[in-house]
Amino acid sequence: MLKKERLLRIIEIIDQRGIVTVNELIDYLDVSDMTIRRDLDELESSGKLLRIHGGAQSLTYSATQELSHNEKTTIQIDEKKEVAKLAAKSIEDNETLFLGPGTTIELLAHELTNRKVRVITNNLPVFDILQQNDTVDVSLIGGDYRKNTKALVGPIANMMLKKFNFSKAFISSNGVHNEEISTYSIEEGELQQIALNNAHQKYLLIDNFKFNRDDFYVFYNLHDIDYVVTDSKITPNVYRHYSQYVEILKNNNNEDKHK
């Protein structure tokens, strides 16, 4: 099989299945591990797929099927860590924070250990990260458990959350397209909407991959967000386009700047 044919076949397989491992592609195409990894790197560089740990993901996959929590922890890890570290710099001691669902928010929680803050969350991994820390006052909201995001949602969670006010709310999303912020779950979207409305400052934490993407449920308008925190791989065109809606924070030449 010629290289061009192999690359087209890889794209076809990944678009059909959503996520494919390197070993599966080796079996499908009967080529070496090194060849598949080179092909995947080349296809990612040309914007045809997204590399994840041990394989690749279709660019259209999350719009039709929600990834599991474990799958999300393999995607854009360095970029998510960059976002989390930058977001943590906006937090001052003695603040009351809401931390929502999402693996980027979980990485933010790691940045808050040993910080003197109060955290309200519906994110079970965030609670697990912070609950043994002596300086963080953390509360977990009750509700219905969503396995895919390890978040607590539903009427009970919404009722509890409406009683709280926050100095800052930090949420993530599956996509941002123009002014629309969207996620897969209506319940998660409704809860994040409540948290944002009860916060003095509203932060959206997304890596560069989330721009120009849609998901099932639109739960907030980008005009109503105070800051979007993203990574340094955001393209100039995307940065310029979304700067008309909101202030974007990103690392630039290793310095944190408000753009």
TrEMBL record:
Function per UniProt: Repressor of the lactose catabolism operon. Galactose-6-phosphate is the inducer.
Protein name: Lactose phosphotransferase system repressor
Origin organism lineage: Bacteria, Bacillati, Bacillota, Bacilli, Lactobacillales
Residue ranges of domain HTH deoR-type in the record: 3-58
Any one Gene Ontology molecular-function term assigned to this protein's record: DNA-binding transcription factor activity
PROSITE patterns listed in its UniProt record: HTH_DEOR_1 (PS00894), HTH_DEOR_2 (PS51000)
Keywords: DNA-binding, Repressor, Transcription, Transcription regulation
